[in-house]
Design brief:
It comes from Rhizobium deserti. The chain has 62 residues and is mainly α. Helix content is 50%, strand content 0%.
Length: 62
């Protein structure tokens, strides 16, 4: 599942680094905090590795 925006891709990257122990879980906020808790390392890796070219900074929530 590719990221839909740059912000989602960045949040997934932060959550992934915390899940791997490279960053503190206590430093996570907002979307990255919930992503870390609810998604597997594989899912986070897929989102974080999405290419940023052509993605909007943010996507409006429905």
């Amino acid at each position: 599942m590719p990221a839909k925006s740059k912000a989602q891709q960045k949040a997934a990257g932060s959550a992934l680094s915390a899940k791997r122990g490279e960053a503190k879980k206590s430093d996570l906020k907002g979307a990255s905090k919930s992503m870390e808790k609810s998604m597997s390392e594989k899912q986070l890796d897929e989102l974080a590795s999405t290419k940023r070219k052509g993605k909007p900074e943010h996507v409006a929530q429905p």
